[in-house]
Amino acid sequence: MSAKRFLGITLAIVLTSGLGAAHAELSVGASATGVGATPVDPIFTFDEFGIGNVDGVPMFSVVAPDPSSSLAAVLIYTLPFDVGVGDVGVWEGTDHSLPFSDGIRFTNANGDLAGAVGNLLIFYSDNADGTDAPADSGLPSNFGTGATGGPVEELPDGTFLFVAGDNQYHGISDAVEVVPEPSTLAIAGLSGLSMIVVYRRRRATA
């Protein structure tokens, strides 16, 4: 074998090995390099009801069978580009002795959970208190068996944040509806009543 051919084969092996290592080491949820154009520092926002966006641009979502587990119906978002696959657990609060209440999974149509890329984000939410949102499927039995990122904590307002490279994932789980306090309602009612009284007095004196 000539030295030139030997060097060519060696270089090809080195390049192939390097690409394989880079592919395997891609962080969960991080953008895959060299796969189309990706926005700068994208911010993903998504909730339990299938409403999500990337920097304000709506994301497609659907309730369908889980390609990565035996769950028959899960909430799946389609990301605009590929990211590293794997699971991210979400604790409800600061007590890390409790099991995860929610989780997000990055996968693909083959259901890969490690050593691959995909553009599917599955949002699993706790259904112990009942099922009132599309994401309330509970965690699959194989959650955490592949690549993992995080975990992260759910804040008191029902939101959580997972950062992977330049990507930010803002999840909305048990968001609390803001209800005005009784004092605020009373003040608003008195203000409205005062306006009615003034209006009637002006009409009476006209």
Tell me about this structure:
The protein has 206 residues and is an alpha+beta fold. The chain has one domain (28-172). Helices cover 22% and strands 32% of the residues. It has 2 helices and 11 strands, in the order H-E-E-E-E-E-E-E-E-E-E-E-H. The protein has helices spanning 3-24, 182-205, and strands at 43-47, 52-54, 57-58, 61-64, 74-84, 86-92, 102-107, 117-124, 148-154, 159-164, 167-172. The strands form 2 sheets. The protein has a 6-stranded mixed beta sheet, with no helix packed on it. A 5-stranded mixed beta sheet has the order 3-2-1-11-10, with no helix packed on it. It is globular, with a radius of gyration of 25 Å. The model is unreliable at 3-24 and 176-203 (pLDDT under 50).
Please give a handful of descriptors for the protein shown:
32% strand, globular, 11 strands, 2 helices, five-stranded mixed beta sheet, six-stranded mixed beta sheet, disordered N terminus, alpha+beta, 206 residues
Task: Write down the overall mean pLDDT.
Answer: 78
What does the overall shape look like?
globular
Helix residue percentage: 10-25%
Largest beta-sheet details: 6 strands, mixed
Tell me the strand percentage band.
25-35%
Total individual domains: 1
Low-confidence stretches: 3-24, 176-203
The total count of strands amounts to 11
Radius of gyration: 25 Å
- The tally of helices reads 2
| Overall SS class | alpha+beta
Give the end-to-end Cα distance, rounded to a whole number of Å: 110 Å
Strand order, largest beta sheet? 4-5-8-7-6-9
> How would you spell out the order of helices and strands?
HEEEEEEEEEEEH
